[in-house]
Design a protein that fits this description.
The chain is built from 4 helices and no strands. It comes from Planococcus versutus.
């Protein structure tokens, strides 16, 4: 299990470095970050969350099963809220996104929400 934690931490650091580099490049050019930057940063969040959850996932018990189920429930509920807010802001012309940018933002939000909710639930139960 220790090697899994170390591997996930290395992946998280790698994704953070790449995402940070892309953010700094966007700030230096005074433009909006590339939409894939959000996905890379959410993959960093996922890797760090998995490094925390790796020892607990080694156990196949009721607690881990409940954490997974509740995490999926909360992320599904969050997806409905994210979709509603994104659709509303796009239809009211409050923000202007292409379809690819909107999908990348939704993907980044879903990845982050799922794994952060699992970490919160693991700490709670």
């Amino acid at each position: 299990m220790i090697e899994n934690r170390a591997l996930f931490t290395i992946f998280g650091s790698f994704f953070t470095l790449i995402g940070g580099f892309l953010l700094i490049a966007a700030i230096m050019t005074k433009s909006a970050p590339n939409s894939e930057t959000y996905t890379l940063l959410s993959l960093a969040v996922m890797s760090f969350c998995l490094s925390y959850l790796a020892p607990q996932y080694g156990q196949k018990d009721e607690r881990i099963r409940m954490i997974r189920e509740k995490g999926m429930f909360f992320s599904g509920l969050a997806f409905l809220i994210y979709s509603f807010l994104l659709t509303t802001t796009l239809s009211l012309d409050l923000i202007f996104l292409t379809a690819i940018e909107a999908i990348n933002v939704l993907i980044a939000l879903m990845i982050s929400t799922l794994f952060i909710s699992m970490v919160v639930l693991a700490k709670r139960y």
